Request: fold
Amino acid sequence: MAGACKSCGGLYSFLFEYDTPRIVLIRSRKVGLMNRLVQLAILAYVIGWVFVWEKGYQETDSVVSSVTTKVKGVTMTNTSKLGLRIWDTADYVIPPQGENSVFIMTNMIITLNQTQGLCPELPDNSTMCHSDEDCKEGYVGTHSNGVQTGKCIHYTSAKSTIKTCEVFAWCLVEDDKNIPKPAFLKNAENFTLLVKNNIWYPKFNFTKRNILPNISKTYLKNCKYNSKMDPFCPIFRLRDVVEGAGQDFQEMAVEGGVMGLQINWDCDLDKPASRCVPKYTFRRIDNKDSAHTVSPGYNFRFAKYYQNAAGVDSRTLIKAYGIRFDIMVFGKAGKFDIIPTMINVGSGLALFGVATVLCDIIVLYFMKKRYYYREKKYKYVEDYELEANASYGSQAESQGCCAAH
Reply:
């Protein structure tokens, strides 16, 4: 019964009691100073961080971007396999056009004049044999260059001590165990990359390109990007891009890699449009510095097909190592708008209530005179109508008693 009465009392308090704030002026140096310090911190946050640093008075929009690239440069090689040869853009840029990226070949393993036929497989633990019993006809391994015929033959000549399984493949099969060092196209460090970038902020209908209005054709033919001397030139020397990411170009050119060329368009459209300019940064994206990197670098294979004089289909197989440059564009634009301004002003004013709540907690629960302050803070008032009815009833009863006498 006691528990039920207690529950009824709680329900009664919930339904029929109302509390309203009471303003109490506390003359205390500690409390007053603490209140002003909290208010000052809130004011500094609203003005300094929200409005000055984060520009909370602006509407923002994300960038929409398109990128095209053009590589220029010529180099010459002289090897026993290829002889004297000139390499230009059509030879080392693969494919000619990419989407926000460009691959430049810096090293390669070339296998000339392959034709389809029978030849020995490359020797390794799964292909070396002593007799035909070690080879399985029709077998194709994960790293096989062709289909096994079931025969065990000498790898290079009849005098060779090494035997491997015969395969039907493009012969002679590629041997990619020895990567050329230094890189085959080591002079690629002097090639140049022109990046043309157009951006659009649809919310503000604002467009711009990284070839700025003050750039002329004459200037564009001769300029090279330099973070200090010429930070707005859109032509980059490959070595400068790689070194700008803290890497060595000649080392990277051997096995290849992936470089990120980042263009940042952070624009304050409350200022003149001429101050909205790109900022370039560079970084290596593939994890070259990890101690557990397996299969480092960047490479792929492609072939050039033709028919020889006898009408036999032939090809030249190239395993290309190189650097892929990914152009990444990001940024945001901001412009004054009354709606975010009013929202942030309202939020800032609401934060001032934190000072009152914090001071109330300290005064009412942690200070020595907390009981005294609680007495001044809270005042309990009974229902006026109940008090009036009770008083009226007492008076009526008193008058009735007097009349009886």
In short: Residues 338-365 form the longest helix (28 residues). The chain has a mean pLDDT of 86. The radius of gyration is 41 Å.
